[in-house]
Structures are given as structure tokens and as C-alpha cells.
Predict the structure.
Amino acid sequence: MANTIRIKRSTGSSAPASLENAELAFAEGSKKLFIGIGTGGAGGSATSIEAIGGSGSFVDLDTSRTQNTFLAAPNGSNGAATFRSMVAADVPSLAHTKISDFDSGVRANRLDQMAAPTGSVSLNSQKITNLADPSADSDAASKSYVDGVAQGLDVKDSVVAATTANITLSGTQTIDGVSVSADNRVLVKNQSTASQNGLYLCKAGSWQRTDDLASGADAAGMFTFVEQGTANGDKGFVCTTNKGSAVVGTNNLAFSQFSSSGDITAGDGLDKSGTELSLDLKSNGGLVIESTELALKLDASSITGTLAVSDGGTGGTSASAARSNLGLVIGTNVQAYDAGLAAIAGLATTDGGIIVGNGSTFVLESGATARSSLGVSIGSQVQAYDADLDNLSGCQSGASAALAALTESEVQILDGATLTTSELNLLDGVTATTSELNFTDGVTSNIQTQLDAKQASDAQLTELATMSSGTASALADLTGTECQILDGATITTTELNIIDGNTSATSTTLASADRMVMNDAGTMKQVALSDLVTFLEDESTSGFDIDGGSY
């Protein structure tokens, strides 16, 4: 029997710890075959141990590889094969018909650079997006454009805000409560120069018209929605200028509100649910009908059934039934017809008019006509108005009789009298005349006592009585000694005024022109100091004493 050749083996997965040169070993756990390489001498131990077979040692078909990697030598050089990422240099240069030129020859080219197809192009149920609005008959159209055209509108992208008044078309600003920043779309619709109206892009400098409504375009039927704003927010606006006369930048453009989510509200008698209005007179308290806004015609032939009294009806189908249901009995609850009342009701409410019966009906007459009809003439049959008589009519009956008994002379006694009732009662029993009585007018105490207290007549006192109150007061303040100073005085007012204001001792520098008061042979005079110096310097002047010194 042939001999069995066996190599080293283990149940583990790792390489053996040592092998002889060219010695083989197999690891059952990893299923790898190892060989010893290199020697330290004949029969010596290997210097390295390499895997030469088994999973992971070389390329195998069962192991997954990293995407976009392949087994190849290093690019541009020889060497051991390895798995690495593919680069462009790994693909040889081929003609345009080869896949290597797809990136530069096909994918890099735009669709508008490619040849026009000669057959139908299938998009495999995919969409073409971001289409611009068409301008030619053969252009493709977006859904929004088609929807707008279907409604007779040229729909434009929404705007951030819409103007409410004329604005300066320059710089960022606040419009309708919205702070508009650069590149925001704005609907300008209120310019004083209406040809400036349209769609704009806000800019830091001058504003620009939008590309979808540029100068020269026809704005007729153009529609846009306003996103924000106090007055215009959530509202849609349409250009109402007729086509052909709505050239942007040339013609005057007008815009009107087309829609709004919140402009419709339910008024009296109306209910609103979403976009639907309904009418329920009962639950909404009735319908307010304005003659200029709403008219409601109820033809009798079109009305069936009855409306209950509680709902504002009569509950009856006949007049008598309606009256009965309403509790109205003619002649009891309501006035029965009367021709006389009807005649009165038909008369005008003329100021001063009087209702008079003429034998067949009632008529309206003026006061004068009515008095004539009644046979009453003022000043003949009735007393004409007199204010004095009106006042006398308020007197008591006894007073009226007493006044009627007075003569004209007796009445004249009171003419001009100013005394009171109390004063008049003092005269009860007095026989004095009016002049005599007037002497005591104002006396409130014993006359003799008052006379005894009076000052006897004095001419000087009479003269003093004419003084002003200020002068009398000043004299009253003088003492007897002070008054004696003036006794025998011959000084004049001018002379007294010389010392006016001299109330205390003062120190001052004297000048030649300064003056002092001196007696000149019995007359007081003002003398200049220069004159005094001349006198003192005169050698012919006899000696004199000054402050204890002789000169």
C-alpha cells in the first residue's frame, strides 16, 4: 500500500508560530494554507510564514468587494495586484462611439445643443419641471399658465405686498405695513403716473420691472396674489385695462381686486359657511331691507300655508282669522272707521291752524278765519290782550276791589316813592307831608342824640375837611413839638429841598464844583467850594477860628 504524505495542521484559524524552510501547514479554522519562507541554514527555521491558499489569500468569488473598486496593479507601474478605486486613467481613450467618451461627448452637452429628435421622445411617465411661461404658439406651457388661461387670467407669481398710494420707485421701504427688502416682488397699482403701475422687484437703488411683466408686455388680464399687508394681504388683483391698451411702461394700467379669502361676511339675516351664504330669517333675527340695496317681492299667488304669530306672521289665511289671532276686534281693540276722524287725519298740520266743522266735514282754518266763523271779534266780543290786565288778573279779589277804588291823585302819591313796606308802616297815623317825611329818610336812632354828638360848625374844620385822605393822615401823625418847628419859619420849599435826602453822615471826595449851604445876609444860598477857597486865601480877610484853630 502506498505511503500517505501529511503536512502540519491545526484546528485554529491563525498562521502557525514557526515552520521549517518549505514546510507546509494548514489551518482548518480559516481554511488557509501556509508555507515557511527563508532559512537560517540547512534544516533551519523559516524567516517568514506566508499564506499561499485559502479564503482571503487571493481573489475569490465568494467575498463581497467595495463598490467602484477592482483588482489591478498600481496605475502606471508594475507591482502586486490590489483592490483600489477606478480612476479615469484606468480606461483607455476610445472613439465617441465608445462609452469612455460619454461624459465629454454626451452628458456635458445641454439638450439645446443636441440634434433635434426625428421621432417621439418618451419620458417614461416623468415630469418636465420649472417651465417658463410660453411666448410662442409652439412653446410648452406650465400647469399654472394653463389654469390661468382657462379662467381668462394671465397668472403671475405672487407678490410680497401691494401699494395703497403713490410711492417712490427706489430703495427699500414699508408698503401697506410690510417691510419690503431687496428682490421682493411688489404690485405697484396706485401711481400718480398710471403708466408706472405694474410688477416690480424692490432694489436698493431704482426698482426694476419683473421679467414676467417687463416693459413692452401686454398686461391685460394679468393676475397676481398678495401675500402680506394690512389692506391688501391675502387678496388677488387683476389688470382691468383692455388688451391692446395695456402695454407695460407705455399705457396707463389699472388694477382691481379680484378675490379675497376674508372679504365676504354674513350680514343681517345671513349665514356664511366657507364660501356659501344661506338665508334664515328666523334664526338671524330677520332680514334688514334697505330700499337702495335689497328688495323682496312676495306675490300672494306664490305664498302657501301660514306663518305663525310667534314667527312674525298672522297665523291665518283670511283677514278675519288674522285679526282674531292677533287679538284685534274692530271697535274694541282698534278704532272703527269714522268719516270725521278720517277727515281730521287728512288735514295738514299747519302752524296756528284750527279744526272747524263746516256742517258736513272738518276743515282747517287760520285763527282769523276761525274767529270769524265762530263770531268772535277781538276788541268787540273778546277783550284784546293787555299786559297790565294780565298782571291784574293775578290779584286777589279784595286787592282788585281796593285798587279799583283808588283815584288818579291817590295813585300818583306812590309815583317815585322808594320807601319799603316797613318804612311805610311807620307812617301809620302820621299827618306830615312827603317833604317833611323825607327829612328823616335813613334815620335809625334818636335824632336828638345824634345831633348832640355832632361837632359845632368851624370854618377851619370845614377847610380841613377838603384835604385828601393822605394829607390828613400825615398831619395826624405829627406831635405838638413837631408842629412848633414851623412856627415863625420863613423858609421856602426850594430852600428846604436843598437838604432833601440828607439822612446820614457820609464820606466823599470834595470837588471845586461841589456846594454847601450858607447864610448870605439872612438868605440861605448854595456856595461852591471854590468860592470858599478863594475867601480863605484872601489876605485881607480878618482872622477866624475853625475846629479850635486860629487862622
Remarks:
- The longest strand covers residues 48-54.
- Residues 282-286, 295-303 have pLDDT under 50 and may be disordered.
